[in-house]
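I have a small job for you when you get a moment. Can you supply me with one protein entry, sequence and fold together? It will help me judge whether the discrete encoding reads sensibly. Write everything out right here, beneath this request:
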Amino acid sequence: MNASDAAPAAGSAPDDGLPAVAPQLRALRRRAGLTLEAAARAAGLSPAHLSRLETGQRQPSLPMLLALARIYGTTVSELLGETVGDRDAIVRAADMEPTRAGGWTYVQAGAPGRGMQALRVRVPHGSQGDIVRVHPGEEWLYVLKGRLRLRLGDTAHLLGPGDSAHFDSLTPHRLAAEDHDGVELLFVHTLLQSPTATLCLGPLTGELP
């Protein structure tokens, strides 16, 4: 066993949050045949940070879950330990359980296990605004409430309720809430089913204007 896969030291207490994620992250990484170091590098994380996610000592953000799902060739639903049922075409509001990750709140708005993932997302002000993502696929978002600061490449956009964006995910992109009350979105992304570790190029640096 890789030394970096060892269990956490005695006395280290995991944070509350998403207890089902920690064991799934490790199991799915191993299923993809990736070492801790290779997976962390592909996701733009340090091996120590990924190890803390895998042992439940840290809570992953939604962008991290999306990146790791792409790297491991799976879905966010599987990372969260959700089982794929009969893939009913109808998703009832009463069955939509909200999940918090890294300050974001999101609800699966589509059937789990699909190549196209649909989410309803709430992004609070100041949360994950410094993360830039680059990865294969497409993303579509629609602003339900509040205002969204969206940066695509070198261009910044301010979107209000009713505005939408549809873009190639290889374009460096960043999402942040403009207002202190946060922003609510409908969010759809294509999920490439491949364990290739190079799918997610990781975060880039830079600030929104």
